[in-house]
Amino acid sequence: MLNPYSGRPDGSFWRRAVAIAPADVDPVGAAKFLIAASDKIATAGSCFAQHISRTLVRQGFDYLVTETGPPERGFGTFPARFGNIYSPAQLLQLFRRAYGLFEPTEEAWTRPDGRLVDPFRPQVEPQGFATIEALRADRDQHLAAVRRMFEDCDVFIFTLGLTEAWRSTKDGAVFPLAPGVAAAPDHGDIAFHNFTIAEISADLTAFMAAFRAVNPRVRVIFTVSPVPLVATYEDRHVLVSTIYSKSVLRVAAEDVSRNEPSVAYFPSYEIVTGHHTGYRYFDETLRNVTPQGVEAVMGLFSRHYLAASTEAPATPVLPAKPPAAPVRLDPEFAALSAIICDEEAIDS
Amino acid sequence: MKIGILGNCQTAGFVASLNALAPGHELTVVRLDTNDRNGDLEAHASNLSACDLLLTQPVHDAPSGPLRTDLLVPRAHRALIFPAFSFRGFHPDRLIYQGTTGSATRGPTDPCHSAIVMACFLEGLSPQRAIRLFNAFTYASLGYFDAYEGDLQQATAMLAKYEVSFDEVLRRASRYFMHSPVHPRIEIIFGIAKATLQRAGLPVRDAAVPDDTFVEPSKWPVYPEIAERLGIAGSLEFECHFKTRDLPTMVEQAYAAYATWTRFEPVPVVERARNFLREQGLGTPVAPIRLAPALTPQDVKQAYRLILGRECERDEVAEFHAKAFPTLAQLREVLLRSKEFQITVRPYLSQP
C-alpha cells in the first residue's frame, strides 16, 4: 500500500509549509468564497476584529455601517455601536436582544461619576447617559441598527475572543466587562463563568441558525483573535487559561464552519502565533499584535478573500527580532492604537 | 344572452370585467356577501338557473341552501364554475376573527387581527414586547417570508383547474395585486373573467381593465421587511374604517380589547405564533379560562332550546353537531338559517 501522505500538497507537510522562510508561510488554503467590492461587509468580535474593519475600509470595500455618528463616541468602529463582542454567547444575545427575544433584567449600571452606562456596551458613550430614558432611547435605535446590519450584510466576519465571561445569575445575560471595571450594578447578581466547548459550539450553532433566518444568503467568516487574555479569573496561571480559551474557540469555529460552504474559518490566530513567527508578531508586552502582524493577517486575507482589492496584497514582513524598547509610534501604529479594547480596562 | 352570475364580494369586479370584455349580455347577479344572502334563496336559484349560462364561484356552505354549487349547477341550462381568488402572501399575519356567540370580539381593526399580537396577548407578553416582535426574525420563524411563494404556487395550481393561467393574469397586474388576502385588485379579477368567458366560448374583445370595485374601508399594511423582499412599499400603519393607527396604538388598543374578551377560539395562525413564542422561551400563558373549550353536546342542546325553542331530538344528534362545528358561532348560523327556524320562529320575530 502506498503511503497515503505521499500525494498530499506541500501545505500538508510541516517541513515544506512551516519550516520555510516566514514570509512564505501561508496557512489559509483555498477560500470557500470570494468577497467582491460590491458586497456589504459587517464585522464584529473582540478588539482584533477592528483591524479587519480598518483594512476593509482602507482598501475601498463596502464596509457596512448602520449606525452613524462621531467616531469619538464609538460610531463606525463596528457597523453598529455595540463595542467589542468577546464570546458567542454575547453575540447570540445581541441578536436575541435586537429581535425582541431577550430582555435582560440589567438595563443600566452606574459609574463612579453618577452617569449611567449600558452594561452591554459600557464604553461606547464616553459621557455616559444622564437618565435611564436617554439610555433606553439610544439602546432602542442601536438595536434597530443591529437588525439592519444582520439583515443587510452580504458577508459577516466574527472574531472569537474569550471564553471567560461575567454574566447575570438572574437571566444569564453576558456582559463584555466584569462589574466594577467600567461601572457596576448595585447588587451582586453577577458571577464569573468560563464557557465550555459544548456551550460555545451550541451558542455559535444557535446564532448561525437565527442569523440565517433573517439573512439566508449571508457568507460568514469566523476567526480567532491571537491576542492572549489580559487576565484570568480562574484560579490558575493566565497562560493556561489563555491556551484553554483559544483552543475552545478554535475548535468551535472548526465545528461550525467545517461542513458549511458559506461559512469559512480564517486562520488569524495561526498566522500570528504560528511557530514560524517566533512570537515576533507580538510587541514587548507579548500581548499586543504588532502592525507587521496585523499586516501579515490582512495581507493573506486580502490575497485569498478579497476579489477586487484595490491594493496589492501585502507581503508579510517579519522584523529581525522583537523590539527591545518602546519605539516612536508611526501613523500606522497610531491608527492601530485607536482600536478600542474593552478588555484593557481590566488591567488599568 | 342571459348570463347568471353568483359569487362573493369579487362578483362586482367580475361583472364590471364582463361588461368591458363582452358587453350587451343580460345579467342576473346574486352576491353572497350582500343582503342577497338573506333573501329568498330559492327565488335566486330559480332566476339564476333560468339563464342561458350560469357562471358561479364554488359555493359549498350549508346556509347557501339551493345556491350551493352541487344543487344549483344541475338545474342550470349550462354552467361554468369560476374561481374565487385569495392570496395571503402580502398579509400573512392578518386573520379574520368572528368569535363566538355572546362573546365580545371587538378590536381596533375589527374583524381583522394580527396573529402576532393575539398570540403575544395570550402568552402574557407585554404590549411593548409585542411591538418589538414585529421584525424579520419573527416573520421568518412564522413562515411569513415564504407565504408569497407558497401562495403563488397554490394560486397557480388552483387557477389552472379553471383553465386560468396565473402567469397570464399577473402579466397585467401590478406587483402589489391584493388589497387584502381575500380582496384581489381588479386586474386579477379581470384576468379570471376573461379566461372564464373564453372557456365559455363567448367572443371577448380587447378591453381596458375597468376601475377597481373594492373601496377598502380597512387596509392591512404589508410589513416593511416583507414588502422589501417583494419589492413594494411597506408600512406599519393600520387603517380600519378610514381611521389610521400606528403599530403601538394598534397593539395597545388590541390588548385593551382582548382583555374584555371571555373566550378565544384556537386559530391556526395564532397557534403557530404562540408555539414560536414558547419555543423562544417567551411569556407565560394567561389563565386557560380564556381559551375556548371545544363545543360540547350540552352547548348544542342549549342552542336548540334557545334558537329553535325545543329539545334536541337525540343525544347522538347533539354529539354529532358538537363534533361537526368547531365554534358556537357556526352552530348558531346553521340553526338560524335552518328551514325549521325560518318556518317556526322567524314569523314571530317580524311581528311588531
UniProtKB/TrEMBL annotation, chain A:
InterPro entries: GSCFA (IPR014982). Residues 40-301 form the GSCFA domain. Pfam families: GSCFA. It comes from the Bacteria. This is GSCFA family protein. It comes from Humitalea rosea. The lineage of its organism: Bacteria, Pseudomonadati, Pseudomonadota, Alphaproteobacteria, Acetobacterales.
Automatic annotation (TrEMBL), chain B:
This is Polysaccharide biosynthesis enzyme WcbI domain-containing protein. It comes from Humitalea rosea. Pfam families: WcbI. InterPro entries: WcbI. The lineage of its organism: Bacteria, Pseudomonadati, Pseudomonadota, Alphaproteobacteria, Acetobacterales. Residues 3-203 form the Polysaccharide biosynthesis enzyme WcbI domain.
